[in-house]
Amino acid sequence: MKTGLFILIAGILCVLLNDSLLFLQIRRYFKRKIYSYLFWLHSLFFVSCIVWYHLFIPSLKGPEAYFWVEKCISIILLFYTPKTLYIIVNAFSILLRKAKCIPAARIVNRLALGIALASFIVILNGITWYRYSYKIERETVCIKTLPDAFNDFRIVQLTDLHLGSYGEHYPGITKLVDEVNRLNPDLIVFTGDMVNSFASEMDPWIETLKKLKAKYGKYATTGNHDYGTYVKWSSKADQENNLKQFFKNMERADFTMLNNTNVPLVIANDTLYLAGVENWGLPPFPCFGKLTQALEGTDGYPVILLSHDPSHWRQEVLNYPVDLMLAGHTHAMQLGITIGSFRWSPAVYVYPEYNGLYTANGQQLYVSRGVGYLGFAGRIGQRPEITLIKLTNDCK
């Protein structure tokens, strides 16, 4: 209760402070009082939204809470990020004006307006079209010990779908299935975080996900969110039943779970092992992964490992004979810049391997930035990813 009250007061103060600073900077443009009234009416609207959030959101149970929290966060960011940027940049215009540098002040003022408008457009795009503008990332991965029968074997990796973040009529999931099936993969793997917390998040989408097709099947492992650890359950039994239902839902969607186990993929008497661990994470994330158990019986064969958290690679996996690990988890923070071969995301300061293909000690890691979103209902500069990996033993 105290935390909720703190968020309420802090939110209201931030809105009022931001709008007060903005009003002081632009009030000279308000030639009529009606404009001032309209400005503060819009500010009152956002204060009301924060109060509504405080009163309404805690009463929600299940996936609906995530949906509305993310929408509220996104709308506030949509309007208050541009305002904040304008206030900061335009402050230099005010200083220049006081120094009698009027032409320079006008240029900086227009720059502030341009930056604010651009940020509004970018965020609006991120929470509308961009969030299901899937990008197919094609990667050729060489495994020297790969049997010839697996040359050109095509794997589609999906991860971090976070189904509870969408409304039931969200068009992106059907589009995702269509795009994957058009690739005609040999294998589909899912590397965790199908849901935000609740198994019921899958209910509207099970039949749609069931339509994902691959010649050699669909395999998955768990992510930190799939265990429901971010929800206050009425009892431990409720949480355990939620996890059991999650596994049932994955089975209904035709996914085979690799929970600290492995499966041989066989083509023309050649074998490649696909292994998977339950979520392995550094604190505060849950750690249920048992790599030794997952790799039992794979000695002498090439191995591809599914593990949700990329930090697992350097912490443990590099000490084992795993040729390729596939991970997700980072979302590339749903924020970044990609220009040609140049890529940057603040995720790099938390996860050195946050997106793309990495190599160490002759072993490889591919980290997908994921399909879905969490917290902020969109993506900026980091399109949702469908990964298409082609295996080869031609390592020239």
From TrEMBL:
In terms of superkingdom, the source organism counts as Bacteria
Membrane-crossing residues?
6-24, 36-55, 75-96, 108-130
Matches recorded under Gene3D superfamilies? 3.60.21.10
* InterPro entries per record: Calcineurin-like_PHP, Metallo-depent_PP-like, Metallophosphoesterase_sf
Q: Which biological process annotations from GO are given for this protein?
A: lipid A biosynthetic process
Which PANTHER family does the annotation name?
PHOSPHODIESTERASE YAEI, TRANSMEMBRANE PROTEIN WITH METALLOPHOSPHOESTERASE DOMAIN-RELATED
GO cellular component assignments: membrane
Listed A to Z, the keywords are: Hydrolase, Membrane, Metal-binding, Transmembrane, Transmembrane helix
Read off the Pfam families from this record.
Answer: Metallophos
Query: Which CDD domains does the UniProt entry name for this protein?
Result: MPP_YkuE_C (cd07385)
* Keyword Transmembrane helix tagged: yes
Q: Which GO terms describe its molecular function?
A: metal ion binding; UDP-2,3-diacylglucosamine hydrolase activity
Query: What is the originating organism of this protein?
Result: Butyricimonas virosa
- State what protein this is by name: Metallophosphoesterase
